[in-house]
Amino acid sequence: MNPSVFGSAGSPVGALVAFVAFYVIQRFGELAISSQNARLLLARGAREHGREHLPMIIVLHTLFPLALVAEVLLLGARPGALTPLWGGLFVAAQGLRWAAMRALGDRWSTRVLVLPGAPLVGHGPYRWLRHPNYVAVVIELLAAPLMFGAWRTAAAFSAANLLALRVRIRCEERALADAVGRRAPA
Question: Is the pTM higher than 0.85?
Fold first, then answer.
């Protein structure tokens, strides 16, 4: 463990503050991009699907940094030997998320907004993955807490996220199938 990153005696407080600041700034930045893109999509005739499950996702991403802070500060979670691995996975997840956002361009949104008749995106990470942004979130919600030794947060939020994604991906698949006139996967 590098004391310059995690403070004296391995305390992760400085790194935790930096991480939470990064996370919050990133999420607000994504919300700004999403809001702008949503306005453009709706103006072009996009239809929204699955609005009822969005609050579940918002709550999940709002509670995540709070749970991480609580586990580190109140339960004494500390980084372990695998911290560099988890950090590398977290960074890779950020790259995958930004590649997915870039590939979707102004069609990326936190809401399920679909332009009827628009072709599916098949470039960038979408060449290999059906839902690269969601893969990035799965990796992020596992790796980020484990960088700090917060295994409870990693387990709880990974499980909650998988439940949320089950709902979200089914909704998105149905919406996309309707928009391009094909059958949604079961």
Answer: yes
Residue in this structure with the two tokens 């995958």, named with its chain if needed = 96
Q: How many domains does the chain have?
A: 1
The residue to which tokens 């599916």 are assigned: 120
Burial state string for 60-93 with b = 16 or more CB within 10 A and e = fewer than 16: bbeebbebbbebbeeeebbbeeebeebbebbeeb
Cβ neighbours, 10 Å, residue 139: 19
Please report, for the domain that includes residue 42, its CATH number. 1.20.120.1630
Distance CA 179, CA 158 (A): 30
At 17, the pLDDT band (50, 70, 90 cuts) reads: very high
Range of the domain at 105: 3-180
CB atoms within 10 A of CB 102: 12
For 66-89, write each residue's pLDDT tens digit. 999 999 999 999 999 999 999 999
